[in-house]
Amino acid sequence: MVNCAKCNGQAALKRPKNGDALCRSCFFDAFEREIHATIVGNDLFVRGDSVAIGASGGKDSTVLAHVLNLLNERHDYGVKLVLLSIDEGITGYRDDSLEAVKRNKLEYGLPLEILTYKELYGWTMDEIVAKIGLKNNCTFCGVFRRQALDRGAWKLGVNKVATGHNADDIAETVLMNVLRGDIARLQRCTQIVTGQEGMLPRCKPLKYTYEKEIVMYAHFKKLDYFSTECIYSPNAYRGH
Ligand SMILES: Nc1ncnc2c1ncn2[C@@H]1O[C@H](COP(=O)(O)OP(=O)(O)OP(=O)(O)O)[C@@H](O)[C@H]1O
Q: Quick one: which residues bind ATP (predicted)?
């Protein structure tokens, strides 16, 4: 038996982040404390903020919604949280993942707003892919989503957006920008708060959280999320 490095009980995992052997409860504690430290250390929220959590139904945004809701109560941030989902119109993917978001809305007691590409742009991603095929479709979708999240946030009257981007996502983005030689983006992409002119600030509370630990946390906490990859992303540069 391996002992928990914190409480000496039975360890349940070895943390990918630092190799510590921890029991479940000490892992939850460390995981949540680190996200709290990121929020406080970077002044991500101030009392009275209204924050839309970009909720895709995937593991990252589900863990983000769960942890923000918990920390907001535990540490009395005084922040109003709302779930904001964008339905890109991808049959067999987003329709299923949005069902997970709807269940989370009930579980966490948070309001949920869903905006669709169809109503915003007149096209679903299914229709776009039928027209342009599986080349550059992720680029379209990414640009649309960024704007859709912003429009949804204005509609909800919030002053900030939080997304579930994690440390692995950011490392991938750094690598992609190096390979593309995109110096401007390389500098921007590691910032914890972004927001181009005229857009609401966006923050990434999971910036220092490892993807593997997010999966472990979601698994041990039995969080309700949808784990399939987008059916239209096999050619995406990120995956490559
Ligand atoms: N359809 C969407 N609606 C709302 N927010 C989204 C949507 N897609 C992505 N996001 C936001 O952007 C973040 C990063 O997007 P990414 O494509 O990595 O998400 P994912 O793999 O679909 O799901 P997740 O990141 O939740 O595991 C998400 O964590 C979420 O906050």
A: 54-56, 60, 86, 164, 169
